[in-house]
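Thread amino acids onto this structure.
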């Protein structure tokens, strides 16, 4: 009955958000008459990452504006259904919405993953030769509803729910991790707070402005979960555009967890967005800090080039971080513009790290 209760909590929260959003749109539609233009870009979902290898399926990306373009940035949403050569199933919807005059900003996802991964254990010095195949299924619901309290500053609550089950593995090396992995099955339910200062000129592909986010989640049995832990994240981004159109983008990302943290909820180094070149989860622990810098140049209207570098690591405790021993990643990539008006790119990146590398083929910028 506990699992049923957990699903009731998440379903109720989801219904409340939908009602809120529909009410907001209805009020705006009544108060002003304008023509909404929705640009749908259906694409064959062809992607590649070290975590998935080749993935294929269908993607629909929608870009639209819920107000006046002069006062409201574009919103976007996407629906993805894909299968990968690693026998993974991905069903995902994501949204990033601005209501008229940006009074509210909503973002989140509803997803299902049947997702075998490679598991290397916990810590920043795990052995690559000890990798294990580990499979699981997980349902994810996340949503935040932020209110603009002053220009470009948004504050509000957020909720996340995920249920992980059907863990499968046959360990050869990391036998001591069996209890920890087995105990990772179950439900996480977290309520938190987010504050965002956002002056980016484009959410999908920023060339000017800043993005500053501080976020908290408090997971616990009182919210219907099986684990008690807290998460604090800090995401700081800055974009500079030069007279010739070239762009420099920088990001600092920190994730800090305390409490009873299941293996999938730990901070994970690597992936398609930061520390590209490292398998996502190659190193995992309670804490993570990473810094990355990217140079972007538009060669011709539909083709661009990027070069990037990153520096970061994971650690059990914040005080144990050794900045001098952080891991590095460098790489370069191409950008193919598929929607010029909204600057939506297909990106092709290749990253190199310490005894590792990764190729990435994805939609939209890494940050």
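Threaded sequence (367 positions):
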């Amino acid at each position: 009955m506990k699992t049923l209760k957990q699903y009731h909590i998440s379903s109720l929260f989801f219904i409340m958000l939908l009602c809120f959003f529909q009410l907001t749109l209805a009020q705006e539609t009544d108060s002003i008459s304008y023509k909404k233009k929705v640009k749908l870009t259906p694409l064959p979902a062809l992607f590649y990452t070290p975590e998935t290898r080749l993935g294929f399926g269908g993607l629909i990306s929608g870009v639209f504006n819920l107000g006046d373009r002069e006062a409201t940035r574009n919103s976007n949403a996407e629906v993805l259904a894909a299968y990968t050569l690693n026998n993974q199933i991905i069903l995902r919807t994501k949204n990033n919405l601005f209501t008229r005059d940006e009074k509210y900003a909503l973002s989140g996802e509803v997803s299902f993953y049947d997702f075998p991964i490679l598991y290397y254990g916990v810590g920043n010095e795990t052995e690559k030769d000890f990798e294990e195949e580990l499979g699981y299924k997980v349902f994810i619901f996340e949503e935040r509803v932020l209110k603009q309290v002053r220009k470009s500053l948004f504050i509000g609550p957020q909720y996340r729910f995920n249920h992980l089950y059907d863990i499968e593995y046959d360990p050869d090396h990391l036998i001591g991790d069996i209890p920890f992995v087995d105990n990772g099955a179950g439900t996480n339910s977290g309520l938190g707070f987010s504050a965002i200062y956002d002056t980016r000129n484009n959410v999908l592909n920023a060339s000017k402005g800043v993005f500053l986010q501080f976020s908290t989640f408090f997971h616990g049995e009182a919210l219907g979960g099986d684990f008690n832990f807290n998460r604090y994240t800090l995401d700081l981004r800055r974009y500079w555009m030069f007279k010739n159109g070239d762009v420099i983008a920088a990001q600092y990302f920190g994730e800090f967890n305390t409490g009873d943290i299941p293996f999938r909820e730990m901070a994970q180094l690597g992936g398609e967005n930061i520390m590209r070149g490292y398998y996502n989860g190659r190193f995992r622990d309670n804490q993570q800090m990473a810094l990355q810098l990217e140079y972007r140049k538009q060669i011709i209207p539909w083709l661009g080039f990027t070069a990037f570098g990153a520096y970061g690591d994971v650690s059990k405790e914040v005080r144990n971080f050794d900045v001098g021993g952080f891991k590095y990643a460098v790489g370069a990539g191409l950008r193919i513009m598929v929607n010029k008006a909204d600057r939506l790119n297909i990106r092709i990146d290749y990253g190199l790290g310490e005894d590792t590398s990764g190729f990435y083929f994805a939609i939209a910028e890494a940050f």
